[in-house]
Amino acid sequence: MVTxxxxxxxxxxxxxxxxxxxxxxxxxxxxxIGIFVxxxxxxxxxxxxxxxxxxxxxxxxxxxxxxxEIWWADSRQQIRLKPSDSRYLRTDFTDxxxxxxxxxxxxxxxPLGDPGPVTADELRALLRSDxxxxxxxxxxxxxxxxxxx
Length: 149
What we know:
By secondary structure, the chain is α+β, with helices and mostly antiparallel strands. Helix content is 27%, strand content 22%. The chain has helices spanning 4-12, 93-100, 104-107, 120-130, 137-144; strands spanning 19-26, 34-38, 44-48, 65-73, 78-83. A hairpin with a 5-residue loop joins strand 2 (34-38) and strand 3 (44-48). Helix 1 crosses helix 4 (120-130). The radius of gyration is 18 Å and the shape is globular. The protein starts with a helix and ends in a 5-residue tail after the last helix.
């Protein structure tokens, strides 16, 4: 598990639809939960059962290497993925997107957004590690006001 600051740093470099080659590392209950995928980041990837074929036997097995796209990310330190290969998608994926995520085509390429509030101390630590020095005017402006990472 990574810190909230590290999670914010990872997220700011990610975009919806960004493709990663990943390895399926766990299929805990085929047909019921979803699959866990290692995409080479310090946070895990997960494909929800809602995006996978109805039959668990049609899911990618542990050890399968395939391309996965970033589908969603929320405050949990986990990246939600969708398989790029249509063999591993629900058969009615196009209809599913139209019903439940019609903004998907427009979301592709957009940043994941803010995972939630960051405390002033977390923000200062983040700025010192990757951004302008804490003593720079930019750091002061950001640290003193509201910010969206």
